[in-house]
Amino acid sequence: MAPPVISLRDVSLDLGEKKLFAGIDLAISAQDRLCLVGRNGTGKSTLLKMLSGDREPDQGERTVQAGIRIAYLAQDPDFSRFKTVFDVVADALPAGEADAAYRVEHVLADLNLKRQCSPATLSGGESRRLALARSLVGEPDILLLDEPTNHLDLPTIEWLEARLTAFKGAFVIVSHDRRFLADLTRATLWLDRGVLRRNDKGFEDFERWSAELIAQEDVERAKLDKTIAQETVWSHQGITARRKRNQGRLRRLQAMRAERARQIKLAGPAKLTAETGGTSGRIVVDAENLSKAFGETVIVRNFSTRIARGDRIGIIGPNGAGKTTLLRMLTGDLKPDGGTVRLGTNLEPVYIDQRRARLDDSATLWETLCEGGGDQLIVNGRPRHVVSYLKDFLFDEGQARSPVSSLSGGERNRLMLARYLSKPSNFLILDEPTNDLDMDTLDLLQDVLSDYDGTVLIISHDRDFLDRLVTSTIALEGDGRAIEYAGGYADVERQRKAVAETNKPQKNKNKEIPAAVKGEATPARTKLSYKQQRALEQLPDVMENLQNEISQIQETLAKPGLFESDPERFRSLAARLADAEAELTASEEQWLELEMLREQIESARNGGRG
Known about the structure:
The protein is built from 18 helices and 20 strands. By secondary structure, the chain is an alpha/beta fold. The chain folds into four domains: 6-214, 3-Layer(aba) Sandwich (Rossmann fold), CATH 3.40.50.300; 215-256 and 524-605, Orthogonal Bundle (Helix Hairpins), CATH 1.10.287.380; 267-348 and 425-504 and 511-521, 3-Layer(aba) Sandwich (Rossmann fold); 359-413, no CATH class. The strands form five sheets. The chain has a six-stranded mixed sheet, sandwiched between helices. The protein has a six-stranded mixed sheet with strand order 14-17-18-12-19-20, with helices on both faces.
């Protein structure tokens, strides 16, 4: 076995009275593709700094193979000493290669950055692209990337994925973007309570693996002392529960997406009109033939949609495509150049924008949520004690009277969301709410929005977040086209590919049509194939059987003493549970696609009347 290119041995670090690490060992090989995960505040960024050499441990040693080039992407790099974007990137070229300006020009062109711009004038997304350019230009052997997708749009994230897929060296990534990690990594490092564990499988396996480790710990802890480590139990109690809860949420979301597919009309003469009379309030937004341009830049042209109560609509597109502009038109905040927007009655909107209002650092968490005094606030129409509500957002009781200034960045984001989401509303409008959020906070936000009774309109670049939350997605293509797809980002990708295949010259006239896509023409078809119809009829029984099997396995795994008495059976059941859950997800997705296809055929048969 080849020696590691970089390693840490017996590394420990204390931050004041808090021990961050204790005796950590880590070896990185030449082609390792690792993700580093852990709760906010566990020290992931600090560990990356130690690997890069920017931070010394209290004890232990760091060893790097001679001649190895390391590039470190920090969360908040400082470019204040540079005059131009070109200078920032050229400064990262290795010694003796300062004349390789062509590499600087190439990476700046790839990331759409202007060489003579001042770094001080860049937006958040441009600054992140600049930091990436600086990390990549030196052709390093090891990349250490701390939240590389923060503030990036989807095209840039996909460009970075392709670049890292082709990268010949090793990398370690800290990111909240689950899809990004699942696509790229082959092994997982889990930093938890000062201990570093490694699983030689990519991030896709993390949830199963971590849940199994926690279950084993629960058994061992019960053997030793039932009263110890309550904080640890609290910190992880959501993982297993979330897996079970998310299965029900997924089924509910699939049903909502099927209903949303029925609402999305095929292109043609049919017009969207708001219903009147007794259904007042059911329609939240009715937009018809919206058009908007700024000078010669067309944001959207002839876009129509109808958003009903309970819909959760995602908006995606490249930076500068006009996502915020479309959102403002749909909510009545900006007048379109052409077309009409009608808003429903009795709407109580709450708007969370990209910048978010500042928190008062001198106020306590308690005072931030109970601005009028007292110890209760109204959430979803019900009174909640402020401490109980704070616990929902992963704060402990002792933090309630602490000042906002004592919070970490992730904790501040959680408090901000807690403050906004406590306000009475039935229409949430969120513009990039996932920026700078850690995975725990993303899970919390998804939980809150999944249980939200009102309507959600959300701009996000987080593909996994959209897949787990939205009922349909409006994609701005950057050329004036806005197309609404049933489902999340993965559904958008599938439907785009299906449309592209349909538009190719076809030798086979019986090629299947894509799922319903608003604004895209599809070939005529009169019925499902026998195989498709058979699958549509059988899948509900398949899903029910899998749900029953999953419930039985979960009940068995929950029995006390199973792991101790029969660890092999415990591991076998845990593995089967993961497989069954994956089979259920695949079956649900297949059912949804077939149901959408059936609805599209039915709509086409009825002449677009739905």
